[in-house]
């Protein structure tokens, strides 16, 4: 019995180490993101692996939105709108890891909406479950998925703005791996 017990403990320890290593590697992938396109490719891959869900042809728009609104998906469209103000505040006042983690989390959340998951609570649960499995409970992206970003970044409340900017920026070549050439 002791031999079986040792085998079981050893097996569990190896599985735990593999899970921790996978989470470290994914955390490094998030840390090394360099642009919106790369972040979204990682999001799509993760969502497909975890939930077996995929769609193509999305566009990313950056717009100054009220600071209590991180992003939204226009229902029935191919648009994900991300709050340019919040991105700018986090990029200016926080680390690269925090910025990339926020970007990854918010794109995941809105991508799930674009896949037809309309219920906000369900999307939050799915985003959180995905991030726990990818980077673990203690990663900043997971914490952002569990709580509101402004709970983790009190600086956001210092920049309270309830307006929608009229200007917006369309990110070129977004979702480029699923676009095909039409000649």
Q: What's the number of domains?
A: 1
> Which regions contain 5 or more consecutive residues with pLDDT less than 50?
179-183
Helical proportion, percent range: 55-70%
Distance between the termini: 69 Å
Mean pLDDT rating: 89
SSE string, helices as H and strands as E: HHEEEHHHHHE
Q: Report the portion of residues in β strands.
A: 5-15%
The main sheet orders its strands as 2-3-1-4
The backbone outline, from C-alpha atoms, is globular
Rg (C-alpha, Å): 18 Å
> Please, how many helices?
7
Topology:
Blueprint: H1 2-31, H2 36-51, E1 59-63, E2 71-73, E3 79-83, H3 84-93, H4 96-114, H5 120-135, H6 140-146, H7 149-152, E4 168-170
Parallel strand pairs: 1-3
Antiparallel strand pairs: 1-4, 2-3
Describe this structure in words.
- By secondary structure, this protein is of the alpha+beta class.
- The protein has one domain (2-178).
- Helix content is 56%, strand content 9%.
- The chain contains 7 helices and 4 strands; from the N terminus they run ααβββαααααβ.
- The protein has a 4-stranded mixed sheet.
- A hairpin with a 5-residue loop joins β2 and β3 (79-83).
- α4 crosses α5 and α5 packs antiparallel against α6 (140-146).
Give the tags.
globular, four-stranded mixed beta sheet, 9% strand, 183 residues, alpha+beta, disordered C terminus, 7 helices
Summary, kept brief:
56% of the residues lie in helices and 9% in strands. The chain has helices at 2-31, 36-51, 84-93, 96-114, 120-135, 140-146, 149-152, and strands at 59-63, 71-73, 79-83, 168-170.
């Amino acid at each position: 019995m002791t031999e079986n017990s040792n085998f079981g403990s050893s097996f569990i320890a190896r599985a735990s180490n593999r899970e921790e290593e996978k989470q470290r590697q994914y955390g490094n992938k998030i840390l090394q993101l360099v642009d919106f396109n790369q972040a979204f490719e990682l999001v799509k891959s993760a969502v497909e692996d975890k939930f077996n869900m995929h769609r193509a042809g999305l566009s990313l728009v950056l717009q100054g939105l009220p600071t209590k609104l991180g992003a939204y998906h226009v229902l029935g469209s191919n648009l994900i709108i991300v709050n340019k103000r919040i991105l700018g505040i986090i990029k200016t006042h926080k680390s690269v890891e925090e910025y990339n983690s926020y970007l990854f989390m918010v794109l995941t959340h809105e991508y799930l909406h674009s896949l037809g998951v309309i219920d906000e609570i369900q999307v939050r649960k799915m985003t959180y479950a995905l991030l726990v499995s990818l980077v673990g409970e203690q990663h900043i992206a997971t914490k952002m998925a569990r709580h509101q970003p402004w709970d983790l970044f009190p600086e956001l409340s210092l920049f309270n703005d309830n307006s929608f900017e009229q200007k917006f920026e369309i990110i070129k070549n977004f979702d480029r791996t699923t676009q095909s050439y039409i000649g």
